[in-house]
């Protein structure tokens, strides 16, 4: 069967690294290019991390483009060193890649790939949506060209993780997110509702650590750092699986139990709601008719726990040539 062309936009980041590895380990995925955006770390540090991870897995030919550093309003806030470490990979040593980023920007790369794979390109966005909004501005026809965009972000029925109501990717650039949700494309949103309730346990991290593949082993080491942060939240050594779950849903390998198609807007005010994803779930819970023009599938529940599938997929990776 034909492989699906993908563009990944990320802020690499420990769970971004897991999502990247998941795509590389999936035979049906043809990863055509990667853009980085400032989020967990700066866009340039994220790009360096991405190049190193690709090189460890034997995929150095996949181009990496640096995207925007600052959000639409204000400035990059310095990232999330308390979650992902100052280097974004929990202080785990990754060998130098020997490769460089390309000269086009992440948004330019997305627009070019959308034209080259018109009607079939899949976009997976697992950082702030700054580059995606920029690409919409570069080419307003983008939504017609892209087959589907999957976004890790937001919180529909649960609290946020960076404020009472906002999730980090959306809160780090609410203006960009609002434009992306308003554009007429088919969106799948993977919010905290499912990513917080699908934890990877210590036993799973141990399985990855035991791998002889350098990339998979390094992911196990990164998870030790990540679990340290989440221990303070969950009370045991485990971690939320945000970005890899979005990758698996984008690929179509996860069965969804509850995923209504609804309208989603983003709060861009400067009040306490800033960055909230306002999902109109009246149809799902109160029986109201679905809003005309609704085009965002919001994943609220999975059929099965995700971590065992993630571990199995990562352990199935072929060694780098
Ligand atoms: C999201 O924010 C980032 O820290 C993670 O990589 C993930 O994309 C979770 O809120
Ligand atoms: Ca991320």
From TrEMBL:
InterPro entries: Inosine/uridine_hydrolase_dom, IUNH, Ribo_hydro-like. Its EC number is 3.2.2.1. GO terms for cellular component: cytosol. GO terms for biological process: purine nucleoside catabolic process. Keywords: Glycosidase, Hydrolase. It holds the Pfam family IU_nuc_hydro. This is Purine nucleosidase. It comes from Arthrobacter pigmenti.
């Amino acid at each position: 069967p034909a492989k699906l062309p993908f563009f990944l936009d990320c802020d690499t980041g420990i769970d971004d690294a897991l999502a990247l590895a998941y795509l590389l380990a999936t035979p049906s995925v043809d990863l055509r290019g990667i853009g980085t955006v400032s989020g967990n770390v700066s866009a340039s540090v994220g790009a360096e991390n991405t190049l190193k991870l690709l090189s460890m897995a034997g995929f150095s030919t996949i181009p990496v483009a640096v995207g925007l550093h600052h959000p639409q309003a204000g400035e990059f806030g310095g990232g999330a060193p308390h979650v992902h470490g100052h280097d974004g990979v929990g202080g785990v040593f990754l060998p130098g890649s020997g490769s460089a980023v390309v000269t086009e920007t992440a948004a330019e790369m997305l627009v070019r790939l959308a034209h080259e794979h018109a009607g079939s390109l899949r976009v997976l966005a697992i950082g702030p949506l700054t580059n995606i909004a920029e690409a919409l501005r570069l080419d307003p026809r983008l939504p017609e060209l892209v087959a589907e965009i999957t976004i890790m972000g937001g919180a529909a029925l649960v609290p946020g993780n960076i404020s009472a109501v906002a999730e980090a990717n959306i809160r780090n650039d609410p203006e960009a997110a609002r434009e992306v949700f308003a554009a007429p494309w088919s969106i799948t949103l993977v919010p905290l509702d499912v990513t917080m309730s699908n934890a990877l346990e210590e036993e799973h991290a141990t399985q990855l650590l035991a791998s002889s593949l350098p990339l998979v082993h390094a992911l196990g080491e990164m998870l030790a750092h990540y679990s340290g942060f989440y221990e303070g939240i969950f009370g045991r050594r485990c971690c939320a699986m945000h970005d890899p779950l979005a990758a698996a849903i984008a690929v179509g390998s996860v069965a969804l139990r509850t995923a209504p198609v609804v309208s989603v807007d983003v709060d861009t005010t400067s009040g306490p709601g800033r960055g909230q994803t306002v999902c109109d779930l009246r149809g799902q819970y109160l029986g109201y008719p679905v809003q005309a023009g609704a085009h965002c599938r919001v994943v609220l529940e999975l059929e099965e726990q995700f971590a065992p599938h993630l571990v199995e997929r990562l352990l199935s990776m072929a060694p780098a040539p």
